[in-house]
Amino acid sequence: MSVELNLNGRIWFETPDGKLLGHGRVELLERIQQSGSLRQAALQMKMSYRQAWDIINYMNEHFGTPVVISQRGGKGGGSAQLTEKGFKAIEQYKLFQAKFREFLKDNSPLIEV
């Protein structure tokens, strides 16, 4: 009996210090861009504000230039927005993710087990 096998996997960007950008972090960046708020993005992803802040802070430090800039809250509340580097990071991730999916699709038929 033959079973259909497919390749599967995930892709992420990493530094020697660890994971820098993957699916979840791209989603966080996109939600920040949509909402204009780190707090709202964190709530939407069911993570603590502190966890989201730590992730953004890590990316800002390790990308060399910030991917998100924020303004502290005040009377009207704080705000957060992606920088050009943030948009470029998302664009690059999605490009390589698409190429990776294509690789998986093209090579799955080659499995001979």
Automatic annotation (TrEMBL):
Question: GO terms for molecular function, please?
Answer: DNA-binding transcription factor activity
Source organism's superkingdom? Bacteria
Q: What is this protein called?
A: LysR family transcriptional regulator
Checking Gene3D superfamilies in the record gives:
Winged helix-like DNA-binding domain superfamily/Winged helix DNA-binding domain
The HTH lysR-type domain covers: 26-86
Question: What SUPFAM superfamilies does its record include?
Answer: Winged helix' DNA-binding domain
> By its UniProt entry, which InterPro entries does this protein fall under?
LysR_HTH_N, Molybdate_resp_trans_reg, WH-like_DNA-bd_sf, WH_DNA-bd_sf
